[in-house]
Design goal:
By secondary structure, the protein is an alpha/beta fold. It has 33 helices and 27 strands. The strands form 5 sheets. The chain has a 7-stranded mixed β-sheet with strand order 13-23-24-25-21-26-27, with helices on both faces. α28 runs parallel beside α29. It is elongated, with a radius of gyration of 36 Å. Mean pLDDT is 86; it is low at 1-24, 710-716 and 865-880.
């Protein structure tokens, strides 16, 4: 039995307790031998649904069966009794197991696959009631799947592991290890505690593993509840720093990690947790991983989880890819390219040189249509190299994975040759072409020679080695497939040698193959030279039966021909796989180059198709967009033939950004305008062209969006509370290089409360953050701040009325809105005419009362934010006499100490305590 990781918590479907109770209460006493074996294996895998192999089915029993039948919609039956009660049972066919596994994995379940590891014939030798040996051969979890049928081709399958170290008396730093065993990608990074949620959101993990200490930290409990991915805690005792470093060295076969760069303790702890989990779930199989790369702090545009959701970068608010920015811009033609594009969109660059290199590559391909078309044609023929290589590394590959590598490397060679013929390649494209040119032509030729045209899915099916590649395989196949021809040829030869035209070679279950001749010929075969060839087996009434050494050998060869052919083919497979894995690092680089080339060509194709332009990205605080358009809305309108109204935006400043305060009616286009400018910044920094006539943008370090309103009832938060939490994060974290878009701050509470909050937020953004910001509001009173705040401009959405109907022009112009047109929008929404009329009468009455109210305070009478004194700081509490010892204790992270460091820390504390007394 394998040792088990700690339990994983599915977000949907049954909780782990639903399928762990049976292991705790079931006893093998009184159970049949088969059920006793099941209970024993289940007890060692309490946190998983157990797929127990019985013939052509995987069976599930007890609570596992009840959970699986509900989740999969399959019939729940029963099999025998245990403890006086019926045993619930359900099952799935082995041939269709992947389909059922994918559904269980999508619900957050983990599955232990228990296979027969012994031939039933061997089990019978131990006794008639002996049970075939079974073992768990694999744990299938959301973050460790590799099969194509279980994976989304266009989405990375990231397993994210976390580590932690102390960074002061009360602060912590978290290490993140992002690992995709389906492709071999492996990266490490460190973030402060305040940025942990944003970092997790960027990776969009399918599963998270961490230490029990991190999982049970009260400060993080809410984060684990909110994250959609299953969270799996691991025993603290198995995550010692020394063991983490050892696992990394063993994985990559090195004696030191210095060649990979400098990693912090938290990063090493995260990497160790990831490798431990993979070791456990793969039951010892070691995946082919790229060496870990370190992501430096600030290398990507920081985007928190709520902003990602609001902007719908990779998924819409409903969780679908369709309708997202990713869906609108994806013109990739390969699965690896689609995954890399999503990765770029999740983490736009902040390195100016790298951004410009990407833009140069896109510009070259956009201007060279024939070259772009040829590149995309070759890329479309390239299968998923990275995932095929990963399956081979884990021993799960099949003949089609060999073919995928053959065809992918072929495409890489063709692309390298094509790029070499192009003049003026920009730096990025030249580097990619150089990597593509490293393909081993001998390996590609060997794969072409060895693999047949029609390939089975599994190597066990045989028939994947091309005829003529290995004579022994051809001979075995001939014997297995054309045994009649071989026997007929031998029969004809023996008939000629004996002169007996009625000689026959026959077969029965008793004798096997034998030679039958008439009685007279048989007598002759017992004499002279023929007795050296023919060996008597049986005498009949009018015939005699013989065998021969040659026939006996032929019979043995025929009976074992299929098995021998399969064994020879399997040896060919192993040899080819070993040769491929020997070049795994080089092939992985080729796969990455193909993906990067696909992304660049995709951006170029989109730029030509939609008339997008190269943005100018620079240092400083510029933000000038001329003729900007929303990429997703424009694509939707294009399908219906409607035009998109382009708008300009200027938030530039000399040493800081500017704020644009936007007023206007609902449905006028405020939210679209806000979002499109944020998306233009994202597109520019992933290296794509942008939907604008011209764009000049200073680098953005952080992007914040507070758009739309939604309750979070599961967390006990109202719409307004969610709004305030997100706004607080923006005001506390935005820097001068940040871009902020805010929509309708303060609308979720009473009018004056909301107006006051919106006013104070505007002042804080202007005076404290100094960032570039778009602030949409229906509080028209705020427009008066345009005359008092030097870096704030007013803008509005143009509206006109025609025959009593409001017409939205969707044009952003300087100025302020005269009214909100709420009643007109309500009429368009279909409110009853009586309600509209009554609302109009009430509105007139309220407006008149407001105008007539004496002594109404004016916004001009209120002081500016800069003139307000900050609230007094609380008095510090007096230090207790032993606070120095307490601080020393707080600074120690016991989980991160080696035994030697722990001993040294103990001596320091003892000395400190002695000094204090």
């Amino acid at each position: 039995m394998s040792q088990r990781p700690a339990r994983s918590v599915p977000k949907t479907g049954a909780a782990p307790s639903d399928y762990t109770t049976s292991a705790a209460i079931l006893d093998t006493a009184g159970a049949t031998p088969m059920m006793a074996q099941y209970i024993e294996i289940k007890a060692a895998n309490t946190d998983c649904l157990l797929f127990y192999r019985m013939g052509d089915f995987y069976e599930l029993f007890f609570e596992d069966a009840e959970i699986a039948s509900r989740a999969l919609g399959i019939v729940l039956t029963k099999r025998g009794k245990h403890g006086g009660a019926d045993i619930p049972m359900c099952g799935v066919p082995v041939e269709r197991a992947d389909d059922y596994l994918s559904r269980l994995i999508a619900l957050g379940h983990r599955v232990a696959v228990c296979a027969q590891t012994e031939d039933p014939a061997e089990a019978k030798k131990r006794g008639p009631k002996s049970v075939v040996r079974r073992e768990v051969v694999r744990l299938v979890t959301p973050g460790t799947i590799t099969e194509d049928r279980l994976l989304d081709p266009a989405r990375a399958n990231v397993l994210l592991a976390l580590g932690r170290r102390k960074a002061g008396e009360s602060a912590s730093v978290y290490g993140l290890a992002a690992l995709d065993i389906s492709t071999g990608r492996f990266s490490l990074s460190e973030v402060p505690a305040a940025e942990l949620a944003s970092a997790i959101a960027r990776h969009e993990p399918r599963e998270i593993v961490l230490s029990e200490a991190i999982h049970t930290d009260p400060a993080l409990a809410r984060l684990w509840r909110e994250i959609p991915a299953p969270v799996t805690p691991l025993p603290q005792a198995e995550l010692e720093p020394a063991s983490a470093e050892r696992r990394l060295k063993e994985q990559f076969g090195v004696s030191t990690l210095e060649g990979f760069g400098q990693f912090g303790r938290a990063e090493l702890a995260a990497a160790g947790a990831a490798l431990l989990y993979i070791e456990r779930t793969q039951i010892g199989a070691r995946p082919t991983l790229s060496p870990p790369t370190r992501e430096s702090a600030g290398a990507t545009l920081a985007i928190d989880a709520s902003t990602r959701a609001n902007l719908e970068l990779t998924r819409t608010l409903s969780g679908e890819r369709r309708g997202s920015l990713l869906d609108a811009i994806d013109r990739t033609v390969s699965a690896s390219g689609a995954r890399l594009l999503a990765e770029h969109l999740a983490g736009p660059l902040t390195d100016l040189a790298a951004i410009r290199h990407r833009h140069a590559a896109v510009e070259f391909l956009a201007e060279n249509g024939p070259a772009r078309a040829a590149i995309r044609e070759n890329l479309a023929r390239a299968p998923d190299l990275a995932r095929a290589l990963a399956r081979l590394g884990l021993g799960r590959g099949g003949p089609r994975d060999l073919a995928a590598l053959r065809d992918g490397l072929d495409a890489a060679r063709a692309l390298a040759a094509h790029c070499a013929a192009l003049d003026g390649l920009p730096e990025d494209l030249a580097a990619l072409a150089k990597r593509l040119a490293t393909v081993d032509a001998g390996l590609v030729g060997e794969l072409h020679a060895a693999l047949a045209d029609d390939l089975p899915l599994k190597r066990q099916d045989g028939g994947f080695v091309r005829a003529g590649y290995q004579p022994e395989i051809d001979e075995s196949r001939l014997l297995g497939q054309d045994s009649r021809k071989v026997i007929a040829a031998l029969q004809a030869r023996y008939a000629e040698e004996t002169g007996c035209r009625t000689l026959r070679i026959k077969h029965n279950n008793m004798l096997g193959y034998y030679i039958e001749v008439p009685q007279g010929v048989g007598e002759a075969c017992l004499k002279g030279v023929m007795r050296e060839t023919f060996i008597h087996r049986q005498t009949m009434v009018d015939a005699m039966r013989f065998t021969s050494v040659e026939l006996g050998q032929l019979e043995s060869r025929i009976s074992g021909a299929s098995d021998r052919a399969l064994a020879l083919e399997s040896a060919v497979f192993d040899a080819l796989a070993a040769r491929i894995l020997g070049q795994a690092p080089a092939i992985a680089e080729v796969a990455e180059a193909l993906a990067a080339l696909d992304v660049a060509a995709s951006h170029a194709e989109l730029a030509v198709e939609r008339d997008w332009r190269r943005p100018v990205v620079e240092e400083g605080f510029a933000f000038v967009v001329e003729g900007g358009r929303h990429p997703v809305v424009e694509a939707a309108l294009r399908q219906s033939g409607a035009p998109f109204i382009a708008n300009d935006c200027d938030l530039s400043g000399d040493a800081r950004g500017r704020i644009r305060l936007i007023t206007g009616p609902n449905m006028g286009g405020k939210s679209t305008f806000l979002r499109q400018n944020a998306l233009i910044a994202v597109l520019a920094q992933i290296g794509a062209f942008v939907p604008a006539a011209r764009a000049r943008l200073g680098l953005v370090d952080r992007l914040f969006s507070r758009v739309g309103a939604a309750d979070d009832l599961a967390r006990g938060q109202s719409t307004f509370m969610v709004e305030m939490v997100e706004t607080a994060a923006i005001l506390n974290q935005a820097t001068r290089r940040s871009l902020v878009i805010l929509d309708e701050i303060g609308r979720g509470t009473a009018t004056f409360d909301g107006l006051s909050i919106a006013w104070a937020c505007l002042e804080h953004l202007h005076e404290q953050n100094g960032c570039r910001a778009l602030f949409a509001t229906h509080f028209h009173e705020l427009t008066a701040l345009g005359a008092r705040l030097s870096h704030l401009d007013n803008a509005t959405l143009r509206v006109t009325e025609h025959k009593g109907q409001v017409v939205f022009l969707h044009e952003v112009v300087a100025g302020v809105a005269e009214r909100s047109y709420g009643l007109q929008v309500a009429r368009l929404a279909g409110l009853p005419a009586g309600v509209i009329a009554r609302a109009g009468a009430i509105l007139k009455h309220l407006e008149k009362a407001e105008r007539d109210r004496p002594g109404k305070p004016r916004i001009d009478d209120l002081p500016l934010f800069a003139n307000l004194s900050p609230p007094p700081m609380p008095e510090p509490a007096a230090e207790a006499p032993d606070d120095s010892l307490r601080r020393a204790l707080d600074a120690i992270d016991p989980d991160a100490l080696t035994p030697r460091e722990a001993l040294e820390a103990l001596y320091r504390l003892k000395a400190e305590a002695g000094t204090g007394h």
